Each structure stands twice: as C-alpha cells, then as structure tokens.
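Each lists chain and fold; for instance:
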Amino acid sequence: MKNETPLLAADRATVLALAAETQFAPHGIVSRTLLRTALGRLVLFGFDAGQELTEHTSPHHAIVQVLTGRCEWKLGGETRSLQAGDLLYMPPHLPHAVKAVERFSMLLTLIKAEAAIP
C-alpha cells in the first residue's frame, strides 16, 4: 500500500460515503488509506474483475468487510468465497491471497498485533 495522506484525521469526527470514495481502475486494484494511527490502518479497496493479490502475510490482525461484489480468498491453503456483507478475520502471519470473481470493493482494517486485546 502506497504512502498517502489519509482521508480521515484521527483527531476529527468525519462521515464518509464509502461507495462514493471507492475507486476502480480498468484491469487494476485501487487502494485508498482512510485512516492511519499508531495502532493500525483503515484501507478502502476497489478490485476490477479478475484482479488478484498473490499470496502474502501480514504481521497485523486483519478484518475484511466486503462492501460490493464477490471475491475468493485463499486462507492458509483453503479457498473461501465471500460476497457483499461478509466479514473475514485473519490472524497475524496467516498466508492469504485474494481474487476478484467480479468487480468488488472491501474495507480492510489492520490492527497491530501488540495493540490487540487478548
């Protein structure tokens, strides 16, 4: 994820229309950082149909909320289909990949592992 100025300021209440803020690119993936704090990040993604992120891991707790469309997640070797309204939790260091079955958007919340409450 590129280093960009977040759309939200951590010290100011703000309302965003996620559908209006979601951006898509033909044959691409667009990510927008909504909020960045010392404890984590909130990132909005728009995936065009067929786009994918290859398998990787993250040191953070990750929560994915599928906002629109459908996608497939490979989680530690198991494939799961998700659609709008689904929520996915991934613990730190779990190998995962995602592919857009159709154009889809998601909200990703990353929480630093040491910040999570046991």
